[in-house]
Fold this protein.
Amino acid sequence: MIRRARIVLWAVSLCLLLVGSTVVHGHGAASRSPEAEQTGAWTVYTNVSYVTDLAVEGDSVWLATEGGVLRRNRTDGSTVKYTAVDGLVSNYVRAVAVDGDGHKWFGTLSGVSRFDGSGWGTYTFPEEPVHNQVNDIVIADDGHVWIGTNGSVREFDGSDWTRYTTSDGLANRQVSAVSIDDQGHKWFGTASGLSEFDGTFWTTYRTQDGLASNRIWDIAIDDTGVMWFATQSGLSRLDSGIWTSYTMADGLVNDLVFSVTIGDDGRVWAGTRGGVNVFDGSTWTGYTTSDGLVNRQVNAIAIDGDGLQWFGTAAGLSTFDGSAWTSDPMAGGPLRNYTTSVVIDSQGHKWFGTNGGVSVFDGSMWTAYTPADGLACEHVYASAIEHNGDKWFGTVCGASVFDGSTWTSYHTADGLINDFVYAVAVDGQGHKWFGTHSGVCEFDGSAWTSYTTFDGLVNKQVNAIAIDGAGHKWFGTESGVSEFDGSIWTNYTHLDGLVHDAVKAIAIDDAGHKWFGTEDGVSLFDGLSWTTYTSADGLADDYVYAITQDSGGRMWFGTGDGVSQFDGSSWIKYTVVDGLADNSVFAIGAEPFGRKWFATWAGVSVYDEALAPERTYLPMVVNGPTSAG
């Protein structure tokens, strides 16, 4: 049995992208946004350049990506994209397989999705979330579906699921690769060894047996039964009980091998962190970006019916016909799907912080900024816009400001108390305030002032900042809220009425009331009394990352399980079922004319209420109010 391969990412790392569009990095350089994938009032933007798996079905190649699924026509190159708005359980797709009936199976970070060409089905598991983090899918000859997850192995017989864990004999619960040999034995590559299951007994193989590494990323079996294992430290071969391993010393372009597959001619193709290798049985030949490969990290390999090799990489798709390379970076949309912040400037442009840099969307074009342009570093956590239009960004490596042409970055050497910046705000005097891992910094344009727990701050880690109409600064920390009027600090904790001391978000409404998003609900403070709202009242989830107020006075909450809208008396909830790119919503931006932009873990969603059908509201249940201490 020949098995196609792909990389699995254990760690957690925005509408229809037209494959072939380009994002250009640099000042003012941009790419035209492809046609958005829209369902009713919702539009989703994702980046599909990171390919995790490939499967060939006739004239189609199915691409699993971190931004959804692409179906690419091998004849004309046209593509169709599928995301959560179509029926995928998650946009973060790690595996794809096609069964004998032509049904497509997709393993995602949130479960399994099946697509029969017109309708979608979803399978999730009730245990801890790792069991829904699917890394690989294989279809057995009897039609049973086998999946490897970060928590177990699952077998689906068409009606029931059976679970296999370490207590049954699995080497490790993190299963990155699944394959089935001609005898029907199941092979599982895990984070700490290889497991074989013959239907009754389990056998485990590790480095002492001959594996190059116990971390196995992929498995392929040729027509003669020879097995190949892509590992963390080379490629291993098992032939009739004899192990052989290959590394860079033998000709591999890199020892970290993510994917392996075997062509009809018996040649072995290996995708590594440094490029591609092909092995004809005696000689290794390597191909890298200098040969035409779009990116050196090759996560997946597939070979179509015409013998064309397809390579899914960390930055696009390449094909190789044996002599010539064709590459498509598949760039477009935000730099990364993990979007952490959003602000909207006076021109209506949306600025998104991501874990790959800053992305700007003007409604038709995307522009990308990275450390190569002057950004302090690629991991952006916070953003704010100054009165003169300058954009400020908090990163894990310092603070950066962009005036439209030039980037300037500030670090501890310049006056920041800590380079890890969680929050940014600008006051009426134009002073910038930064919440960091070690306290608060104020920057007046020339001098820096730091505030810590010694000054009155309730906790050194500052996650959120808001400034009220009187110029008072409000800081959300891991141990409560601190208010600073310029000379006096006042602290509020659960003892005063705050629902939870770990505060992740702050917003101040038109009435001057303060809203605090915490790890256990929302607290509203009117200056005298506190009111608490939780999931029992209608909040989508108790872990609240973001709060904003729209032009109609309604409050919007981004949570770990969707978005909530609250008009003061009734609640309404939105999730991926409605059109969100992902249920983990880290930031919300509200346009003056109604559209809401949501930065999520798996892309960007925009909601246009003018196109929305009427929704049923949940009645409000109030826990409180309680008196402030």
